[in-house]
């Protein structure tokens, strides 16, 4: 059935290009996360911790996103993966953490970007199931835990902000980053000591 706009402009319903996105908007998630993060500039009391109800609500919003992807998937492998993430969130909803264990926005901003040239046909986001090359403006990131752990930033960002772990192997990315920074500092101090020995 045609609507008045189609009738007025002599457009047949099948001529209208339909671009359906599979990614739900996560603005309510990020808004809620900004309210419960203790590092947020909008947070009035730096010593306050989020209530269990607030933490469970953030987990529930993320779980709703994953349920949306689960309902749209036809792959049994992706279905099992999404179900494991949803189960993990269900456990966190039952026993909410006292603070947000996720990574900061600056951490997300510093994640390694994957260029379109290095992507192959068939490479897809493990969360939404969309092929990276199908999206003209996809922003693909590679997590530091493994070179093949690549995701759309829009899909993995909420998980990382709330959980702080790789969705695939559940490695804590905060610990990984701290270890790399410690190794970098150690290598710099070793070089300084070698330099000092040359001129001593």
List keywords for this structure.
48% helix, three-stranded antiparallel β-sheet, globular, 200 residues, 4% strand, 3 strands, mainly alpha
Explain how this protein is built.
The chain has helices spanning about 5-10, 25-35, 50-70, 75-95, 105-110, 155-165, 175-200; strands at about 110-115, 140, 150. It is globular, with a radius of gyration of 22 Å. The protein is mostly helical and about 200 residues long. The model is unreliable at about 15-20 (pLDDT under 50). The protein has one domain (about 5-170). The longest helix is centred in the last third of the chain and has 26 residues, at about 175-200.
Q: What is the compact description of this entry?
A:
The protein has 7 helices and 3 strands, in the order αααααβββαα. With 200 residues, it is mainly alpha-helical. GO terms for molecular function: ubiquitin protein ligase activity; zinc ion binding.
Topology:
Blueprint: H1 4-8, H2 27-36, H3 52-72, H4 76-94, H5 105-109, E1 112-114, E2 140-142, E3 150-152, H6 153-163, H7 173-198
Helix pairs in contact: 2-3, 3-4
